[in-house]
């Protein structure tokens, strides 16, 4: 038991001052690899606009791997099904309670699967919708109305849900916005530059909030 506890603490002590992100690989058949140009573009934007030093060569880490403890920020996306084994859920639980952060951006269709799988990670918690006055919307870039709408999908309003631990936001789920599509290269979705800038600025706010809190 001591060894299991020691290893996450060792890694967390090394990443608390790091500015790195990683892509989370998960099971269930969903395309965890969606939006391949999204993270590189967001990283470049953050390095330019926020002065961060995030490596452009981000890593992919599996939910059950100890490698997640090397990164303070994990990003997860995809369409449809998500599945975590018991061991993966326990690993993510330890990671998040030990100082890590997970941003899940719904590319489309993740929510019904995600709700079930997040219960494995936090059986005693419920997500809360973040109000428009939450600090994450008021970092370098201000979003007075909260999460911006990037892609229409079901024509529902964008929503940001969070899990908290001892007052700290540890997991953010962005729904009905599709920030990742807005981060992609311009020719992928042919979004107007104004829309891309909204997506990149909101993504930068998330990065800034996590790295500074």
TrEMBL record:
Keyword Ribonucleoprotein in the entry? The reply is no
Top-level taxonomic group = Bacteria
Keywords on record: Signal
Pfam families in the cross-refs: DUF4159 (PF13709)
The keyword Signal appears for this protein: yes
Q: Where is the DUF4159 domain?
A: 21-211
Note the InterPro entries from the entry.
Answer: DUF4159
Leader sequence range is: 1-18
Q: What is this protein called?
A: DUF4159 domain-containing protein
């Amino acid at each position: 038991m001591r060894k299991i506890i020691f290893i996450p603490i060792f890694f967390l002590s090394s990443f608390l001052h790091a500015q790195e992100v990683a892509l989370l690989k998960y099971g269930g058949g969903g395309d965890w690899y969606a939006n391949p140009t999204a993270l590189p573009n967001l990283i470049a934007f953050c390095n330019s606009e926020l002065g961060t030093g995030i490596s452009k060569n981000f890593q992919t880490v599996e939910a059950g791997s100890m490698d997640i403890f090397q990164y303070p920020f994990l990003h997860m996306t995809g369409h449809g099904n998500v599945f975590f084994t018991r061991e993966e859920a326990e690993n993510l639980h330890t990671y998040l309670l030990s100082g890590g952060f997970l941003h899940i951006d719904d590319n489309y269709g993740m929510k019904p699967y995600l709700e079930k799988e997040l219960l494995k990670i936090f059986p005693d918690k419920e997500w809360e919708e973040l109000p428009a006055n939450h600090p994450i919307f008021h970092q370098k870039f201000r979003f007075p109305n909260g999460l911006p709408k990037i892609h229409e999908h079901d024509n529902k309003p964008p929503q940001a849900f969070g899990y908290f631990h001892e007052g700290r936001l540890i997991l953010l789920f962005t729904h009905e916005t599709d920030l990742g599509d807005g981060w992609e290269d311009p020719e992928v979705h042919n979004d107007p530059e104004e829309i891309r800038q909204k997506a990149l600025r909101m993504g930068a706010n998330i990065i800034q909030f996590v790295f500074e809190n």
